[in-house]
Amino acid sequence: MNTLLVKDVRIVDADHQLVGDILIRDGSIWALGRKLPAPRGVPVLQGEGRTALPAFVDLHAHFRDPGFPEKEDLLSGARAAAHGGFTCVSLMPNTDPVCDSPEVARYMLERAREIGLVEVYPVGAITVDLRGEELSPLEALAPWVWAFSDDGKGVEDHELMLRACRKAAALERTVYPHCEFGGLADRGLSQELMVGRDLWLCRRTGCRLHLAHISTPGGLELVSLAKERGLPVSCEVTPHHLCLTREEGDYPVNPPLPERETREALVKALKGGTIDAIATDHAPHTPPDKAAGAPGISGIELAFSLLYTRLVAPGTISLPELSRYLSLGPARILGLRKGLIRVGYDADLVLFSDEEFTAGEDFFYSKSANTPLLGARLSGRVWATLHRGEVIYLDGAVKGRDFRDHREVIRGG
After folding, report:
1. Which of 9, 19, 228, 363 has the fewest CB atoms within 10 Å, measured from its CB?
2. 215 lies in which domain range?
3. Who's near 258: CB < 8 A, 6+ residues apart?
4. Is residue 26 annotated as a catalytic residue, yes or no?
5. Please, what is the average pLDDT of the chain?
6. Contact between 171 and 148 (Cβ < 8 Å)
């Protein structure tokens, strides 16, 4: 039986706050309260006044496995996720081979179970090889994936996307589009046109729709209108679109970093409830690829600290609000019993402190450190990550990699 007592923490989730202890048994939260007694023989994790949050759930990440081990693989990606406080990660299909067959999705799931750090939830490709010409075998993929996406590319063929939405609705799987038409210089308009089309397809077919990395006020306005009409739609925004601007440096990402006014509109939409989740779009690249202009940020390890430093610390949003978007919202989209610190929920937890740190190259467990935050001073450092009651990251060490003896931190009961 997996049993642990987490002592002396400030417990915060989307709905409540208290100071006390958390008793974990068999992977679930068993009890909450002040000065809980440690059952005989049960190890104790001394929180020493740190804050405990529900562990984070990332709906959008690239672990580059199979196909691009020089950038990332499932092991390094899982270590990076644990380091950043994430215990569940949805993996996009632009691997090599593309995740357009059950074999690739099964490989991701089996390899993740073998590693034993975090849960992965594969996304299957909408079209074969992401070419936008022929539907993938969605029926065969459905048992292994939770959603279908051609992430990085919008499916521009209307008839093809209509068929995909109808099949996804029948299979009870989510359509997860990258909303962008090619050939338009105005990237915002490009996004909004495809958001509008896909919302109409959602209305016509009844498919569940989750929109990737929305980055324009117009796109969010369309989502808000769709929700008012009761459509089964959700959307995400990235930490870098909420916290960084083009004026600070035009770091190449897709969609592009916003201007200051747009960033402020995204934050306003976050506070207003239009946005359902914050997703990292973790996109590791090698230095040569990044120098050649490859878009993307290696973001899963710094997502929480960036959001805490730029939004929570100055009072723009509260810590419970951040927990809603990093944990509860994405957990609900995936249908997981996670995202709250409640009796009966999975014991997926993050403990952090207000400690400041520098995000130097030696900070990262990912194989890639392509981020405009390299060398930045941030606060809100993750100290421990627990997955189903098991400590997978603690005080500078990930389980399975130099996981030093923590007898001074975890003591027998």
Report:
1. 228
2. 55-334
3. 215, 216, 241, 245, 246, 266
4. no
5. 95
6. no
pLDDT band at 41 (very low <50, low <70, confident <90, very high): confident
- Whether residue 339 is contained in a domain is answered as no
User: Which residue has tokens 């679930």?
Assistant: 28
Q: Is the pLDDT reported for residue 402 higher than 80?
A: no
**Alpha-carbon gap, residue 46 to 186, rounded angstroms:** 53
Q: Token pair 């934050």 is at which residue? A: 267
Q: Is the pLDDT of residue 403 over 90?
A: no
Q: In this structure, what are the phi and psi dihedrals at residue 177, rounded to the nearest 5 degrees? A: -85, 145
What is the enclosing helix (H) or strand (E) of 146?
Answer: none
Residue 409 scores a pLDDT above 60: no
Residues 175 and 186 reside in one and the same domain:
yes
The residue with greater pLDDT, 2 or 269, is 269
Length of the chain: 413
281, 354, 395, 402: which is the annotated catalytic residue? 281
pTM comes to 0.96
| Strand-pair category, 44-46 with 277-278 | unpaired
Q: What is the domain-level CATH number for residue 218? A: 3.20.20.140
Number of Cβ within 10 Å of residue 198's Cβ equals 23
Residue 15: CATH number of its domain: 2.30.40.10
pLDDT digits (tens, 9 = 90+) for 241-278: 999 999 988 899 999 999 999 999 999 999 999 999 99
341 falls within a domain: no
Same domain for 35 and 126, yes or no, is: no
Q: Which of 229, 233, 223, 226 is nearest to 270 (CA)?
A: 223
User: pLDDT at position 407, please?
Assistant: 45
Q: Which amino acid is at 60?
A: H
H helix and E strand count, the chain: 12, 18
